[in-house]
């Protein structure tokens, strides 16, 4: 997700200033994507340049409040209606690491086991966070997504281990 669309989504709820946007972005995403305030103001400047937001008057504390424009609402609607494709996501370092370990004839089992331990720890932490959270549905969805991803990674690691155990090439290397 681009930060710019995230800020537009928040501004669609009403005018806000930079620190509000930062706090609400982190609250909505369960703080899984921390933003620094410099990113927020840089993004607001670009959104203003592109005509997607408009700055308002400074309030009594010197903060500039931003409002989404009609062009910004159109951009937000376009973003919401465009599915995220797998190619839009960054490369998966774990997949690349395991593929290269196999290619390099390294012992992949310790790589899988180390990842399995870390993923299980992450899964436990996320489950505890979900139980302890009194957050709203936005944070709940973020935590659920992260839990499902960790569970999927565990299943994929089991699959990798089974495939490598059954592979004649892997069995040759181990003997």
Written account of the structure:
This protein has helices at residues 3-11, 18-28, 37-49, 70-81, 93-103, 108-132, 137-166, 168-174, and strands at residues 53-58, 64-68. Helix 1 (3-11) packs across helix 2, helix 2 (18-28) crosses helix 3 and helix 6 (108-132) runs antiparallel to helix 7. It has a two-stranded antiparallel ribbon with strand order 1-2. It is built from 8 helices and 2 strands; from the N terminus they run H-H-H-E-E-H-H-H-H-H. With 175 residues, it is mainly α.
Percent in strands:
5-15%
Structural shape = elongated
Distance between the termini: 47 Å
Instruction: Indicate the percent of residues in helices.
Output: 55-70%
Mean pLDDT: 88
Parts with pLDDT < 50 across at least 5 consecutive residues: none
Order of helices and strands: HHHEEHHHHH
Strand order in the sheet with the most strands: 1-2
Q: How many alpha or pi helices? A: 8
Characterize the main sheet.
2 strands, antiparallel
The radius of gyration is 22 Å
Q: How many β strands by DSSP?
A: 2
Question: What structural class do helix, strand and pairing data support?
Answer: mainly alpha
In a few lines, what is going on in this structure?
This protein has 175 residues and is mainly α. Helices cover 67% and strands 6% of the residues. Strand 1 and strand 2 (64-68) form a beta hairpin.
